[in-house]
TrEMBL record, chain A:
One of its GO terms (molecular function) is transmembrane transporter activity. Keywords: Amino-acid transport, Cell membrane, Membrane, Transmembrane, Transmembrane helix, Transport. This is Amino acid/amide ABC transporter membrane protein 1 (HAAT family). It is a multi-pass membrane protein. The lineage of its organism: Bacteria, Pseudomonadati, Pseudomonadota, Alphaproteobacteria, Hyphomicrobiales.
UniProtKB/TrEMBL annotation, chain B:
Residues 1-36 form the signal peptide. This is Amino acid/amide ABC transporter substrate-binding protein (HAAT family). Keywords: Amino-acid transport, Signal, Transport. GO terms for biological process: amino acid transport. The keyword Transport applies. InterPro entries: BCAA_transport, Leu-bd, Peripla_BP_I, TAT_signal. The keyword rRNA processing does not apply. Belongs to the leucine-binding protein family. Residues 49-410 form the Leucine-binding protein domain. It comes from the Bacteria.
């Protein structure tokens, strides 16, 4: 039971990340009809918003390190710490949550510029061309980040208060062995909140209603005198913000490097395909489903029977879905079907 | 009737041909540089010699690669007589004169292995075929080392391995043209065993998480053999993909597995991630079976410790070398490196620096760059003054035998670099093994 709860929690936590990235991806496909291979790069750029915030907060003065005698070594003491002491330290400690404030406007701007500056010229082109140009864009963005921040992962920790693990076993009346890192629980809650926010925006606001109408029948909405294109541009910006926030909050789990977006891109595409291209509930459901499946496939008992299953389970599910139900679990009839 | 004249003439002709052949061959056999035309990128008619530094500049082991490159650049400086000379002041015996190698200025080209075997092979090939590199060195992964070593064997180019810890590199995949100064997984196990027994006892249950490639497998095997010989039980050995990023799905099963020791057979970025995440899951403060849960990282490095931050504190492991060593050679190298770059060298930097000097010294002693002669000069070469005490480059498998350091993540560092504390310096005799146990054939030269 303990093992089951732990793996389930782990799967949900992984699924939260997958769902968040896939959500933006499928939103862009559903509205603009664009297959955006630069979406992983947006996740990465979000993570680097956290790195940037951390670097800004830790701008430092160099002081000679007395512990090193062989040569002149200098250690860096952040100005915030020099000026404000413990208060400064506490602010630096909360760099990741604080970077959400930076990431929202920055990612929105990046999304809008990306859509207006490049993506819109490819609406009427084939999916193959869209994939090529967005993939190229992703590589360009990666190289820019690599030039600015280097190739190595940059440790970006969670605040000390939530750096340890929560004794959920005791809460649930299970064994003391059942513990789970606080930050991962926060990430799960955060992803659920963002998902709820996006759904509420689309479901309960007039703006969202028009967007949904545009997704169903763009032409008719246009005939009603609504500038649906402008709304879709905003939706692209929202998708960029969602991917960016997913990246910001992921930094304490995985120290970011320039390549992290590519690692998630493939996974999130599989999630979108399994959920159904353009289906928002599909992306969320498939995200959690695949996260949970991947987690359970990594259990020793499962790996003993099927060695290596943890590394292929997600793709195996995708293959089965594509064979049996090409439109995905919750996809619209006709999409991806001949 | 038999034509005796013809018979005698033919015999005389054969004799004369053999004699002339011998006469013509004599000067080329007994004179230096006679192999000039016979090996790749022969620098005889050039004023300089080019070395190829093949290091990971991107990918999981990029940190280590960057430090390796710094060390190589420093080694080139010292070989050319620039700077303070570093370990050229302490190496014994020393044939190098500080005027390059065999009077030729040392130059270098670099390649990015990307920590991928195919990329590493093509960058090594490019450096040999296009840039004229006479020797290839570097790397921070055993998979890459084994692949490049085998390419070098095919091309007749000496490969001085960088950071590679798999038993296979000088075991089943050893090659005549390949040499390793760095220690290996077997040695880590042999050095760790007594310390583990002393600190954790003989009644323990170990859980392994292992990077799924040649280095991970051999380290898991070596450490498992060591701990099982101590009486420990192995609960599970789980393979994880290289560069997995999020290891949480592999760590959660550890929590209720009944294991009281987690052995992380990971290195570089993987190590930083898996150790950080294991600590986030509370494994460092856990009590299991009435004992304190322990995490062991059999192969440690200071660079890794930096990336993992506080997670590394109190964790046991082994290392090939550490900058805090107090011998004259280590101090000379740390001073030289520190003055150049502002921070101390990593173990990867140390092994690469030493390998470059050893190769250059072997050329100087051989009096030629001809690989087969340089190989002979390196085989069974005994030296000292390179930071690890008296060392033997064993001819049977091209593996260096020297002391191994058992270290622990420092609880109270005195400086930002003072992250590992040396627990024990295990002498070379305690980690020496029979070269035949891992199989493999060196092959031939030429």
């Amino acid at each position: 039971m303990d093992a089951f709860v732990l793996q389930l929690l782990n799967g949900l936590d992984k699924g939260g990340a997958y769902a968040l990235i896939a959500l933006g991806l499928t939103l862009v496909f559903g509205t603009l009809g664009v297959v955006n291979f630069a979406h992983g790069a947006l996740f990465m750029l979000g993570a680097f918003c956290a790195v940037t915030m951390q670097k800004l907060l830790t701008l430092s003065v160099k002081v000679k390190d007395p512990g090193v005698t062989f040569f002149d070594a200098y250690k860096e003491i952040p100005y915030l710490e020099v000026w404000f002491g413990d208060t400064g330290k506490a602010v630096i400690d909360y760099a990741v949550p604080l970077s959400i404030l930076l990431a929202i406007p920055v990612m929105l701007l990046i999304g809008l510029v990306m859509e207006r500056g490049l993506i819109r010229f490819f609406y009427k082109r084939s999916h193959a061309e869209q994939i090529l140009v967005t993939f190229g864009l992703a590589i360009v963005l990666q190289e820019i980040v690599k030039t600015a921040f280097g190739a190595n992962p940059i440790p970006t920790g969670a605040p000390d208060a939530v750096a340890g693990s929560a004794a959920i076993g005791e809460w649930l009346g299970l064994g003391a062995a059942v513990v789970y890192p606080w930050w991962r629980l926060i990430y799960l809650a955060f992803s659920l909140a963002i998902i709820a926010g996006v759904f509420s925006f689309l479901q309960f606001t007039t703006y969202g209603m028009v967007v949904r109408a545009g997704m169903q029948d763009r032409e008719t909405v246009g005939l009603l005198g609504i500038n649906i294109q402008r709304r879709f541009t905003v939706v692209f910006g929202v998708a960029a913000v969602v991917a960016g926030l997913a990246g910001v909050m992921y930094t304490p789990i995985l120290p970011p490097d320039y390549h992290m977006g590519m690692e998630f891109l493939v996974l999130s595409f599989v999630v979108v395909v399994v959920g159904g291209m353009g289906s928002l509930p599909g992306a969320v459901f498939a995200g959690f489903l695949l996260g949970v499946l991947q987690s359970f496939a990594s259990m020793t008992q499962v790996k003993d029977i099927l060695p290596g299953i943890d590394q292929i389970i997600i793709y195996l599910v995708a293959v089965v879905i594509l064979l049996v139900r090409p439109r995905g679990l919750m996809g619209r009839r006709g999409v991806m079907e001949s | 009737m038999k034509d005796l004249t013809t018979s005698v003439n033919r015999r005389s002709l054969l004799k004369a041909t053999a004699a002339s052949g011998l006469v013509l061959a004599t000067p080329t056999i007994f004179s230096r540089g006679a192999w000039a035309q016979n090996f790749a990128n022969d620098p005889t008619n050039k004023s300089s010699v080019t070395l190829g530094f093949n290091v990971p500049q991107t990918g999981a082991y990029a940190d280590e690669g960057a430090d390796e490159l710094r060390a190589y650049q420093l080694a080139v400086k010292h070989l050319n007589g620039e700077g303070d000379g570093g370990m050229l002041q302490t190496m014994k015996p020393l044939a190098l004169k500080g005027n390059g190698v065999l009077g030729k200025k040392v130059e270098y080209v670099t390649g990015d292995t990307q920590t991928k075997s195919d990329a590493a092979r093509s960058s090594a090939k490019r450096m040999v075929e296009k840039d004229g590199a006479i020797m290839i060195t570097g790397g921070s992964s055993s998979g890459v080392a084994v692949a490049v070593q085998s390419l070098c064997q095919e091309m007749g180019i000496i490969f001085m391995a960088g950071l590679t810890h798999s038993n296979d590199t000088t075991g089943k995949d050893k090659r005549k043209y390949g040499f390793r100064h760095f220690f290996n997984a077997y040695m880590s196990g042999a050095a760790l065993g007594p310390v583990l027994k002393e600190e954790m006892g003989t009644d323990r249950r170990a859980y392994h998480l292992t990077a799924d490639y040649t280095w991970g497998w051999t380290q898991e095997e070596s450490i498992k053999n060591t701990t099982e010989a101590l009486g420990w039980e192995t609960v599970a050995t789980v393979r994880t993909p290289l560069g997995a990023g999020d290891f949480s799905q592999y760590i959660t099963p550890v929590l209720n597995s009944g294991a009281d020791v987690l052995i992380l057979n990971h290195y570089g970025k993987d190590m930083v991630n898996s150790l950080t995440q294991a600590v986030q899951f509370g494994l460092k403060d856990k009590m299991v079976n009435g004992k304190k849960f322990e995490i062991i990282v059999p192969l440690f490095s200071r660079l890794m410790a930096q990336g993992a931050g506080d997670a590394i504190k109190g964790i046991l492991g082994t290392t090939n070398w550490n900058w805090s060593l107090q011998d004259a050679a280590s101090q000379a190298f740390v001073k030289s490196f520190g003055q150049e770059y502002g921070f101390p060298p990593s173990q990867a930097a140390h092994t690469c620096y030493v390998q470059t000097l050893l190769y250059a010294d072997a050329c100087e002693r051989a009096g030629t760059f001809y690989p087969c002669e340089v190989i002979k000069a390196l085989e069974d070469f005994e030296f000292d003054g390179m930071g690890n005490g008296p060392t033997l480059y064993r001819g049977a498998d091209h593996q260096c035998f020297k002391s191994v350091l058992v270290v622990r993540g420092n609880e109270n560092p005195s400086s930002q670099f003072d992250l590992l504390k040396v627990v024990k310096e295990v002498p070379a005799e305690a980690v020496t093994y029979d070269p035949t146990i891992f199989g493999g054939e060196l092959g031939t030269c030429g």
